[in-house]
Amino acid sequence: MKLIRFGEAGKEKPGVIINDAWFDVSEYIRNYDEKFFESDGLSLLKTIISEKTLKEISRDIRLGSPIARPSKIICIGLNYSDHATESKMQLPPEPVIFFKATTAIVGPNDDLIIPKNSKKTDWEVELAVVIGKKASYVDESVALNHVAGYLLHNDYSEREFQLERAGQWVKGKSCDTFAPLGPFLATPDEVPDVNDLRLWLTVNGTMMQDGNTKNLVFKIPHLISYLSQFMTLLPGDIISTGTPAGVGLGQKPEPVYIKPGDVMELGIHGLGSSRQKAVAYKS
Fold this sequence. Notes:
Elements: E1 2-6, E2 13-18, E3 21-24, H1 34-38, H2 41-51, E4 55-57, E5 73-77, H3 81-86, E6 96-100, E7 105-106, E8 112-114, E9 121-122, E10 125-131, E11 147-154, E12 157-158, H4 159-164, H5 170-173, E13 179-180, E14 185-186, E15 198-203, E16 206-212, H6 220-228, E17 238-240, E18 263-268, E19 272-280
């Protein structure tokens, strides 16, 4: 199944994509949130699709994040060797973990707001994993049983806030609009091999990132198991698995950062594509 949320920001309704058409399921499902996933909502949704006549909606309507605000977004740093190299950082012996504020979440095609006082806003195409079942001290061999699905994420980063200001990376990762998600959540049956997905990103039509999830340093089962040793993963939680080479920070001979008017387009094979236009912050 492919899950979407559509409508005005803050008032999104749940829907599904069937054979490229969009349908409203809000008559039967309240939202795609923690309660939905923990109560086996995916099974209910599957039954609804097979038994009910659903109202088709226009594909011109705005899409929001496929997931209502989760309890946490956990990001994995330096999880592609080529990105670690371009960032001039050593490949980590264990996953590098940081958080991204859930207030950064927006729809897949919403504008990117360049933060106030930002000089180094950067792009990062990433595969995100959505947890479907509570996970605590999970063994790697059964970790994928806790996955509800996968989606596209642009892990925007303000490099000065992240790397040149004292403290943790979270400051450079959590600005408003820094987590466009979707266009849809694809359940695992829609993704034949999550370890072989092409992911790409262009800026103003120029290809900047072109990678493949087969090059992940730490694979998804390991990440779920590893994280669950330190914290409980709740249904709806998001794990963003890292970005391949080609970010603005790594451009030669000089880094390249986002300016107002720039357009970022990105996608992952089987998970759709998204588009964000950069606009300057206004008070």
